[in-house]
């Protein structure tokens, strides 16, 4: 039975170590058809997004601190798959989540 592709969306304000930890925990658990997105609720350049490229995450710069709920809504609209995993940047999914 084929798996349904998943879009994983992480919302962040500052990025940095918390985001890197979450990406490192999540990326190995995603399949080849799954997508990984990071929505940044901050002004451009204010968040440390250096880990995004290393884990193949598409960065969605929202241009301002729009808050978690709006960032989530904008990020969800950018996800192509019907199955979506929404995470905050301080989460690190355990293996087999």
Q: What proportion of the residues is helical, as a percent range?
A: 25-40%
DSSP helical segment count = 3
Give the CA-based shape.
globular
H/E series: EHEHEHE
Largest sheet: 4 strands, parallel
Q: How many beta-strand runs?
A: 4
- β-strand percent reads 15-25%
Which runs of at least 5 residues are low in confidence (pLDDT < 50)?
none
What number is the mean pLDDT? 93
Assign the structural class, choosing from mainly alpha, mainly beta, alpha/beta, alpha+beta, or little secondary structure: alpha/beta
Q: Largest beta sheet: what is the strand line-up? A: 3-2-1-4
Give the CA-CA distance, first to last residue. Answer: 19 Å
Q: What radius of gyration results from the CA coordinates?
A: 13 Å
Features:
single chain; 97 residues; alpha/beta; four-stranded parallel sheet; 3 helices; 28% helix; globular
